[in-house]
Design goal:
Layout: H1 3-23, H2 29-34, H3 36-55, H4 58-62, H5 69-81, H6 88-97, H7 99-110
Helix pairs in contact: 1-3, 1-7, 3-5
């Protein structure tokens, strides 16, 4: 695996960890959504994740279909282009149910 891919995968981990940090003190989507700094900072990291994925080599992504690269990138586009249409409950679900498995899958790729 190239240094560039490794760098980008580590950057993905870093962004996921930031989202985990920004959301850890909240018990539900409503509280998280109403803390503008934490919510906005997390949304920015989702955008960063999408940008990083768009920089990854297509051959690499095609060889690692266990990660839904396109869905993640599409989610970035929703956040970037329809920010006011974001559903806080959906974001909360992603943070609590999809980020940790994604982080684990990326860590396996780095190993």
């Amino acid at each position: 695996m190239s240094n560039n891919i490794t760098f980008n995968l580590n950057a993905l981990i870093e962004s996921i960890e930031k989202i985990e940090l920004y959301s850890q003190d909240f018990k539900d989507a409503d509280g998280f959504y109403h803390d503008q700094k934490s919510f906005d900072a997390s949304m920015m990291q989702f955008v960063v994740i999408g940008e990083i994925i768009s920089r990854l080599d297509e051959t690499f992504k095609t060889s690692h279909t266990e990660i839904p690269w396109q869905k993640i990138k599409d989610f970035r586009n929703i956040i970037a282009h329809d920010y006011f249409g974001i559903d806080a409950d959906e974001i909360w679900d992603i943070i609590n149910n999809k980020l940790l498995p994604l982080k684990s899958d990326i860590e396996k790729l780095i190993e």
